[in-house]
From TrEMBL:
One of its GO terms (cellular component) is plasma membrane. GO terms for molecular function: phosphoprotein phosphatase activity; phosphorelay sensor kinase activity. This is histidine kinase. Residues 184-400 form the Histidine kinase domain. The chain crosses the membrane at residues 12-32, 141-164. PROSITE patterns: HIS_KIN. Its EC number is 2.7.13.3. Keywords: Kinase, Membrane, Phosphoprotein, Transferase, Transmembrane, Transmembrane helix, Two-component regulatory system. It is found in: Membrane.
Amino acid sequence: MFRKLKIKFVMTNIVSITMILLIIFFGIYLSIKGFLKFQADIILYTIANEERLNSNFDSGLVRFFYIKVDTSNEIIGYLMNINISKEDMESFKEKAMEKGVTNGKIANGNFKFKFLKIPKAYGYIIVFLDYSVEEKMFKPLISISTFIVLLSVVLVFSTSLFLASRAIKPIKTSWEKQMAFIADASHELRTPLAVVNSNLEIVMENENETIESQMKWLNNIQSELERMKKLVDDLLFLARADAEDEMPKEYFDLSSLVHKIFDEFTPLCQKKDIEFLLDTKDNIIFYGNEFRIKQLITILLDNAIKYTGEEGKVELKLESHTSTVQLSVSDTGEGIPKEHIDKIFDRFYRVDKSRSRNHGGAGLGLAIAKCIVNEHKGNINVSSVVSEGTKFTVSLPYKAPQN
């Protein structure tokens, strides 16, 4: 598919540029040809009317001769600015008179002339202007133009091939990521569906049993349905983020929000015997989406607590600076191996898939966190040491409220 797209891109460029170059050079050719014809006509009319070469033209560059003939078509005078025999001059006179037109072209051997015949009181004056130089000029002009067009086509082909590879690369990467995303999403949905289906089969096979006796299987079904609901919600969030829908923003008390989240997570930390610390300044009014920021902090805290063992420590910190608000979540948990740091924000990426599944994760949390940070025009960084802990730092642009 991408090979065909690349070929189509290259061919479109070549055809387009070739057509443009042909139009340009054909236009130049016609313009030069028209100008030379116009100039030749002016010279012919000037000589015919004045019976001499006007001082505006260089006699060294204009090669001409004229013949005066009487009413009997006999030559009664001539002026020559070109080396030509009387026999040839007589021949050209006869051809001009035979043509029956006032102007045209005559060729005889090595001579090529434009002629103009104008009636006079004594008969006619026939002016012959050598146009062999112009004829010779057109041939190299066509040759040079053809060479330039062909060279341009080769250059355009090379450039288009290079640019096509560069242009298609992000599309190809995006396509591959989309395919991987669909495959991973299908896989994640298939597992809970299989569990729900198997538990339902057990319940249906024991249709005479009471609900209470089959509560274990029903609880499994409910648990997997909740997991599916969360997964679908996460997928919808990422889909909306990809669609770049405008996110509503307003001023809210970020300090108060952090305190509320701290209170909500404190029981969970106490249950795991984790020391939970809060370091924040009061009255930090932030411009953004309160629900999304809460979701961001929740994801980071949930990950920190999930991968921190008993008697560990988790710290939530909020600082404000002149132009940024900095939020950090640090823990003393398992840490992340260095080779995984650059990939942890990818969708469905899990450092340890088996352990993540045991924790109920699908590998979407940090991808959502990064989307939220991007929506707020901020950035998120992570530093981690295996067996020592991890620290996520979020920097968001700060805009002070107007009084």
